[in-house]
Amino acid sequence: MKGRVVSGYRPSGRLHLGHYHGNLKKMIALQETNECFFFVADWHALTTMYRDTSQFGPFTTEMILDWLSAGLDPEKCTIYRQSDIESIPEIMLYLGMVTTLGELERNPTYKEQLRELDSRVVNTYGFLGYPVLMAADILAVDAEFVPVGGDQVAHLELTREIARTFNSIYGHTFTEPQPILSESPKIPGTDGRKMSKSYQNYVGIDDEPDVIRKKIRKMITDPARARRADRGHPEVCTVFLLYHSYPHDDLSEIEKSCRNATAGCTDCKDELARRISDDLKGFREKRREFSKKKEIVEKILQEGAERVRPIARDMLINARSAAGIGKLM
Ligand code: TRP
């Protein structure tokens, strides 16, 4: 075993290609040679969706079935739900004491979300503090590595800062975790922005081939190529960018046929859609099987919680004793 790894996803429904290439494939590879902890971050979902939690349960089930169908294996990694681990919020409490408002207010995601989401909803103590919660998730299992998408790197840096501050005040208690970034190129959504559920520009990993084709047909291409006979510029085309995430020995031919207009965008898109559908074929088949046995999720979560609780409990005891909390005289 090389090292201890942790990562979490919010239960926000079904996964899409951005999750799959950006992080999930990496998680699947890491479970082979590392001690991996992968969890459903339901308390994180609460930071923005506290007014309606009714979908957290169903979304948790669906997401875990997606994980299993994609290749996460509960024999090789530990899958659990954040809210089953009672020590996390108390660890968060100690971490929160040593985190400054400046550190939290500088967080780029925080600033962006305040702008993009309804600020009346996210202008809360809980939302400002969610990187502290994330730090608690990571430090509670004493993880060394965290596979994350690019958007989470700033949070991970904050986790390192918080651990460092705690250690410098109370003595060495927490390991500073390292990010593991996926090597796969950025996954564009059908509108050219980052693929995201909230932008409605995603290809779901369970989409059927005809749905994939329809979505890919709508993708933004080179705006300068208005007519079939116009020469294209693959370097500005999101379809071409997405080709890189699939088997692509023939990419230079595809590039050429765009540049000299021997192939049209529709042909090029249909070919990409076919590659995506082929790549997801195994997933769709497994997912269909798993949909018939949803009850396994409960068992997986129970076993996962049993494995993680004692680890997080030990880290909590370390943090308490380092900080001198709960001692007499
Ligand atoms: N912050 C992540 C997100 O919003 C989820 C998350 C919570 C996480 N805790 C984590 C990821 C710990 C990695 C490690 O998607």
Give short descriptive properties of this protein.
mainly alpha; Tyrosyl-Transfer RNA Synthetase; 54% helix; elongated
Give structural notes.
By secondary structure, this protein is mainly alpha-helical. It has two domains: 4-186 and 295-323, Rossmann fold (3-Layer(aba) Sandwich); 209-279, Tyrosyl-Transfer RNA Synthetase (Orthogonal Bundle), CATH 1.10.240. It contains 16 helices and five strands. The strands form two sheets. The chain has a three-stranded parallel sheet. The chain has a two-stranded parallel ribbon with strand order 4-5. α10 (153-170) links the parallel β4 and β5. α4 packs parallel to α16. The chain is elongated and about 85 Å long. The mean pLDDT is 94. Bound molecules: tryptophan. Tryptophan (TRP) binds at residues 6-10, 41, 44, 134, 137-138, 146, 148, 152, 155.
H-E string:
EHEHHEHHHHHHEHEHHHHHH
Rg computed from alpha carbons, rounded to a whole number of angstroms:
22 Å
Report, as a whole number of angstroms, the end-to-end distance: 42 Å
Estimate the mean pLDDT confidence: 94
Number of strands: 5
* Class by SSE composition: mainly alpha
At the fold tier of CATH, the topology name of the largest domain is Rossmann fold
- The biggest beta sheet, please? 3 strands, parallel
Helix content: 40-55%
By CATH's scheme, which homologous superfamily of the largest domain applies? Answer: HUPs
The CATH architecture classification of the largest domain is: 3-Layer(aba) Sandwich
Tally of discrete structural domains: 2
Which strand order does the major sheet show?
Answer: 1-2-3
Low-confidence stretches: none
Q: What does the overall shape look like?
A: elongated
User: Could you name the CATH class of the largest domain?
Assistant: Alpha Beta
How large is the share of residues in beta strands? 5-15%
